[in-house]
Amino acid sequence: VNNEELKKRIAEELALERARRDSEAQKRRLKQEQMFVRDEFGKLLERERISSNEHLTRAILRERAATEEERQKAQRFARQLEEKDRELKKHDAYYKEQLARLEERSAQFYKVTTEQYQKAADEVSARFKRYESHPVCADLQDKILQCYRQHARETLSCSALANQYLRCVNHAKQ
User: Fold this and answer.
1) Which InterPro entries does its entry note (predicted)?
2) Which structural domain, as residue segments, surrounds residue 103?
3) By the 8 A CB rule, do 161 and 140 touch?
4) Distance CA 101, CA 39 (A)
């Protein structure tokens, strides 16, 4: 019985020893697998981090390029605007100068024309004697008009004045 018990005990101990070794081996394999998985996850995370950094870097570079392009475009538009402004100022100065010239010519033309008119008027006055006319028989004319107003319905009562007026006019004609 001792031998058998001993063999049983040895077999049990051997089985326990094997189970313990298997358990330790399994623990080691599990630890190795865990280490492998951690390493793989670490590598995967590192690749993802590098990839996202590359995407971020590319996006930042694209954004910087777009910003630089917009800045250059704004500068180009500012230069064009300044050029147009200078051109408008140049045109404004040119047209003001032309207007001043035209006003000066107009003033000179007016002056010359006025002088010529005055000279021609003086020549005509010097060449032709002014004829001065005075109303003929003005006092009688006034008396006749007054008489006709006073005697609007009796015009024959003013005939004596009318005869005097006709004689005065005929006398002036002669």
Assistant:
1) MIC19/MIC25, MICOS_subunit_Mic19
2) 3-132
3) yes
4) 91
Closest among 171, 101, 103 to 140, alpha carbons compared: 171
pTM: 0.38
Cα–Cα–Cα angle for 135, 131, 164, rounded to 5 degrees: 25
Q: Which residue blocks in 128-158 are alpha helix, DSSP H?
A: 138-150
Residues 125 and 47 in one domain: yes
CA 86/CA 80 separation, integer angstroms: 10
Tell me the pLDDT tens digit for each residue of 138-168: 888 889 889 989 988 888 888 898 899 899 9
Is the pLDDT higher at 155 or at 73?
73
- Identify the helix (H) or strand (E) that includes residue 71: helix 2-127
For 123, the token pair is: 């020549």
Average pLDDT of the segment spanning 65-82: 96
